[in-house]
Every structure is written in structure tokens, then in C-alpha cells.
């Protein structure tokens, strides 16, 4: 039935308009915004101990009603074969884009093809380095150049990028020269260019993040709530294709860990970010949103599901706290990954393997709770998009919104005017 429904959608052109999908997603976002506002106000009222019992009653009932609304919105999104149509659109576009990436990286004549050289060894952690490679690939794509990745002397592994991943090209594998330095000029004519880190480009070309290719804009915007995140996921899916040896490592980890879905991925970053790039967040803050997702999921499936959490962290005490304080949940985690993520062991082959495995398993979860200030969190969210036609809603960040370091200006439009009230810390919107 599903196949015939999909065929009917294509044959009779019954796919929804972009406006319909945009409005449906906006209603979902508005419901979430309403719940954030009401819950925040109730939290303030609970400080009055005499009101606490009544507020808790309202809070619990409001939570149940919001979940019911969200389930109804989800059912609307898949009704009348809309779910089949969305999957068909996403799968078709993904296939087309992956073929395009492969052809760009494997030209018919490598000697004649213009190239772009990218140095993997940016002075930062794994997630930051992978987003650097993504920026290099985006640049090579829009300039129609084959990307050559220099991973010699990689701080994580002396064997380089291919210790874990397949080569980016089967034909163009040697870097004969670094070419000329690139300054952001999209009309550069040199045969080989070498790109600096994105932070050094002062005049950013219009194809920098959060831009997507114009030719895919209509299709992508029709089925996905955050087109660039889906586009980023496709790029990482190509860049991070596991080689044969590492694929076996991943398969062994799946078996030994007992990984299964439904699952919520939780990433708790503590050691090197707290106090500098991010604030401290207690485990209870993460688990609040884990509970909310499983409450929603149980209602959606009319089943009491096992509450499985994949917990990735660089702090072993978090694993201990989780198992002691949340006994109704099944936690999957790797203590070796947590140990190698600690500061004194971070730049090693074991650490690289640990963070790659964490990102992989987080991306395989149905929902993510993390801090988007973390590159690992953003990578997991990006790769997660390759598993769902529209997974844009499948995360909760405890700090930042989604962004790409070095991105173009990201303007947003106020949907409603707001005059701030004195003393509440509000801003004016027009």
C-alpha cells in the first residue's frame, strides 16, 4: 500500500505546496513556543511555596495536553500519504546529490580537473576539524573543483584521515602542489588553490553557510524544516563513509552495546568548554527533555517503550550519576570513550575512534538533547538528518541555536510586534 500511495503521489502530482508545509511546521513551532512560555511562567510561580501544589497540577496537565497537540501535528504530517511523499522526495534528492558529489570527486581526467587543497590539521578538536573539511568541500562544490584533503601529520592519528574513512576520491589522490592561496574570490582561475580556515576569509562569497544550492532550494524547502542542516548532513555522509576496517569496529560496538531504538542521544560536554565557550548544565536539565520526548513517543505509538539513552560525555562522573539517579532508563555509554575524551588523552587514535563512535551513535538516535555550542552536538544533528525525511525538530539544545562557525549573516524576521515591559529584560520587536 505504501508503494502504491507513493506512486499515486508522483503520478497525480498530489504533493503539498511549499506554503502548506511551511505553515504546518510553523504551527508545530508555535505550539512548542507556547509550551516554553507557559512552563517558564509556571516555574516562576512555583517559587511561592503556597502555590506549589496547584502549579504542579497545572504543569502536569498542561504537559499532557501539549503532547497530545504535538502527536496530532505529527499525525497530520504523515496523513494522506504525506509521510510517503516526504520520504520519496528526500531519498530521491539524497541519491542525486550523493551521485553529484561522487562525480565531482572522481572526474574523467584528474590531470585536467581544477582542484582545491584543504589541510585537515586546523588547530582545534575533531568536530571543529570536520566542520573545517565541510567548509572546504562546500567551497570546492560551488567552485566545481575536486577536493584534495591533506591529512599528513594529523594530530589525532599519524595514519591520517583514511585510518577511519574511505578516500574522498578514487582517482585524484596525490597532492602535487598546494597551488595559490584563496581569498574568497569565486572567479579564481588557478588550476590548484589552497583554502585557509574560514575565519581568515574577510570577503565571504554568497555560497558560504547557511546557503544551499539554488537548484535544490524548492525541493528541499518543501520537505525539510531547516534546509541547510539537511544539506550539511548529506556532505558529512559523503565525507565520513567508514572504511572496511572501521565499519567492522562500528558493527562490533552495536552488538556489544545492545544499541537499539527508540533512543534519545544525550551529549554532556564538561571538561574544556565549561566557563569558556559554554555554561554548566546539570544532568537533570538534559533528562527533563529526555522524559518529554519519551512521553510524546509513548503517546504517539500507544506503547510503553523502553527508555533507552545513549549517553556521550567527557566526564565519567556523569555516567555514574545517570545510572544512580535515573533507574527507569537504560543507559548505553562507553567509559573508554569518556576517558579518551578527557583533556590529557584527547589527541590520540583512541580518542578519535571514541568521538567518531559517539557522533555515529548519537546520530542514530530518534532525538538529541545536547548543547549546540558543541561541534560534536551539531555534527550528530547534521548526520541525523540523513535518517529522516525531516528531522529538523528532533533535538533540544540547552544553549545555542544551530549555526555554522564563520557563516554569513543570518537574519530573522519578527512574526509579531512586541513592546517590552520595564524590568523584565525583554527586547522590542517590530
TrEMBL record:
Protein's UniProt keywords contain Transport: no
A molecular-function term among this protein's GO annotations: glycoprotein 6-alpha-L-fucosyltransferase activity
GT23 domain segment(s): 112-398
A single GO BP: protein N-linked glycosylation
Family (UniProt): Belongs to the glycosyltransferase 23 family.
Alphabetical list of PANTHER family matching this protein: ALPHA- 1,6 -FUCOSYLTRANSFERASE, ALPHA-(1,6)-FUCOSYLTRANSFERASE
Name of the protein in its database record: Alpha-(1-6)-fucosyltransferase
Organism: Brachionus plicatilis
Amino acid at each position: 500500500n505504501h508503494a502504491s500511495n507513493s506512486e499515486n503521489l508522483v503520478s497525480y502530482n498530489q504533493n503539498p505546496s511549499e506554503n502548506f508545509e511551511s505553515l504546518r511546521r510553523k504551527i508545530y513551532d508555535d505550539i512548542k513556543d507556547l509550551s516554553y512560555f507557559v512552563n517558564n511562567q509556571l516555574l516562576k510561580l512555583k517559587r511561592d511555596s503556597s502555590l506549589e501544589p496547584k502549579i504542579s497540577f497545572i504543569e502536569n496537565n498542561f504537559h499532557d495536553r501539549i503532547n497530545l497537540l504535538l502527536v496530532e501535528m505529527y499525525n497530520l504530517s504523515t496523513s494522506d500519504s504525506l509521510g510517503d511523499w516526504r520520504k520519496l522526495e528526500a531519498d530521491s534528492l539524497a541519491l542525486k546529490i550523493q551521485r553529484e558529489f561522487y562525480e565531482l570527486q572522481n572526474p574523467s581526467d584528474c590531470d585536467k580537473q581544477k582542484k582545491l587543497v584543504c589541510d585537515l590539521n586546523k588547530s582545534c578538536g575533531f568536530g571543529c576539524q570536520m566542520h573545517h573539511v565541510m567548509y572546504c568541500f562546500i567551497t570546492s562544490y560551488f567552485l566545481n573543483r575536486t577536493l584534495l584533503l591533506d591529512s599528513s601529520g594529523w594530530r589525532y592519528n599519524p595514519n591520517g584521515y583514511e585510518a577511519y574513512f574511505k578516500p574522498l576520491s578514487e582517482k585524484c589522490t596525490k597532492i602535487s602542489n598546494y597551488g595559490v592561496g584563496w581569498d574568497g574570490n569565486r572567479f579564481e582561475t588557478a588550476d590548484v588553490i589552497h583554502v585557509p580556515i574560514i575565519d581568515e576569509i574577510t570577503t565571504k562569497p554568497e555560497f558560504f553557510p547557511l546557503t544551499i544550492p539554488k537548484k535544490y532550494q524548492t525541493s528541499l524547502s518543501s520537505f525539510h524544516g531547516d534546509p541547510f542542516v539537511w544539506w550539511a548532513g548529506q556532505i558529512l555522509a559523503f565525507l565520513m563513509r567508514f572504511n572496511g576496517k572501521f565499519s567492522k569496529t562500528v558493527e562490533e560496538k552495536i552488538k556489544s552495546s545492545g544499541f537499539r531504538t527508540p533512543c534519545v542521544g544525550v551529549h554532556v560536554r564538561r571538561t574544556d568548554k565549561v566557563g569558556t565557550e559554554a555554561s554548566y548544565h546539570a544532568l537533570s536539565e538534559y533528562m527533563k527533555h529526555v522524559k518529554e520526548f519519551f512521553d510524546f513517543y509513548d503517546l504517539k505509538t500507544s506503547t510503553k517503550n523502553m527508555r533507552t539513552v545513549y549517553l556521550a560525555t567527557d566526564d565519567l562522573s556523569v555516567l555514574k550519576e545517570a545510572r544512580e539517579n535515573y533507574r527507569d532508563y537504560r543507559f548505553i555509554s562507553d567509559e573508554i570513550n569518556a576517558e579518551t575524551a578527557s583533556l590529557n588523552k584527547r589527541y590520540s587514535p583512541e580518542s578519535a575512534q571514541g568521538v567518531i563512535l559517539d557522533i555515529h551513535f548519537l546520530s542514530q538516535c530518534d532525538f538529541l538533547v545536547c548543547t549546540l555550542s558543541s561541534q560534536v552536538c551539531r555534527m550528530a544533528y547534521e548526520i541525523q538528518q540523513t535518517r529522516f525525511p525531516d528531522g529538523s525538530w528532533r533535538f533540544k539544545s540547552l544553549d545555542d541555536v544551530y549555526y555554522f562557525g564563520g557563516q554569513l549573516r543570518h537574519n530573522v524576521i519578527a512574526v509579531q510586534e512586541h513592546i517590552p515591559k520595564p524590568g523584565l529584560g525583554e527586547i522590542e520587536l517590530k
